[in-house]
Amino acid sequence: MHMKPETLYAEFFGMSERPFTLLPDPTFLYWSKAHRNAYTILDYGIFSRAPITVVTGEIGSGKTTLVQHLLKNTDEQITIGLISNAQGGRGELLQWVLNALSVDVPNDSTYVQKFQTLQDFLIAEYAADRRVVLIFDEAQNLSVEGLEELRMLTNINANKDELIQLILVGQPELRDVIRSPNMKQLAQRVAASFHIPAMDAENVAQYIRHRLKSVGGDGDEFTDGACQMAHEQTGGVPRLVNQLCDIAMVYAWSKEQKTVTEDTLNSVLNDGLFFAATMGTEETDAT
């Protein structure tokens, strides 16, 4: 019998799809207090015309999902570009920016020509009463030179107004780079910032029940003890909670049990299928 990956055990539990998929999905977004605060900062950064806004969080803390929610709910008067995992030296980053904004330049353009093309685009958007926002996801991968180049972009202005705003989203080390002595000028342009901490035990339980209900479950498919254990094993990192809970539901399904208990989770752990149980969260994939 062949099943689609998204359904797998879902029908057994009376759900429309698997509640703990690993792909970032705004429809599953659980609004913990920390995520609400992070989103408020993103919103504030855009509408206060902050030159640079920074949001950081551990791997798998839901940063990318927040970014996708922001993209879906941005005012139509804002031209927004998303750049993920941008790397490279001088000039390459500028090309990433042009691509994200769908601005075409000839392949043989010099750096100066590319910069002039971007500046002309920003001035045209400004004249049309539109604002331009660039979001850099996984911004901790930017080099010091790349961050300095971004700071230079924020110097482009007209009538004292910012023509481009930057949102940097990344892992905690992004904060350390920005705070370093040689990044003082960049740090001075950061008008808003927020760090998303891992969830506590209560939030993990609420998160699990939220995901279950989002796909038609009643939220009681996991016992209180199982939720507590999920927090202990994952440290409250959403992506790790998803990994563990997804495997646990497969186990429950294979045993035709409608409820995931501590015994179910112990079976998963004893069989060595939840690799993150023996790793630091820094070794897991990013959300």
UniProtKB/TrEMBL annotation:
Regions crossing the membrane: none
Pfam families reported in the protein's UniProt record: AAA_22
Single GO molecular function: ATP hydrolysis activity
InterPro entries, per database record: AAA+_ATPase, AAA_22, ExeA_AAA_ATPase_DNA-bind, P-loop_NTPase
Residue ranges occupied by any AAA+ ATPase domain in the UniProt entry: 49-200
Protein name: Archaeal ATPase
UniProt lineage: Bacteria, Pseudomonadati, Pseudomonadota, Alphaproteobacteria, Rhodobacterales
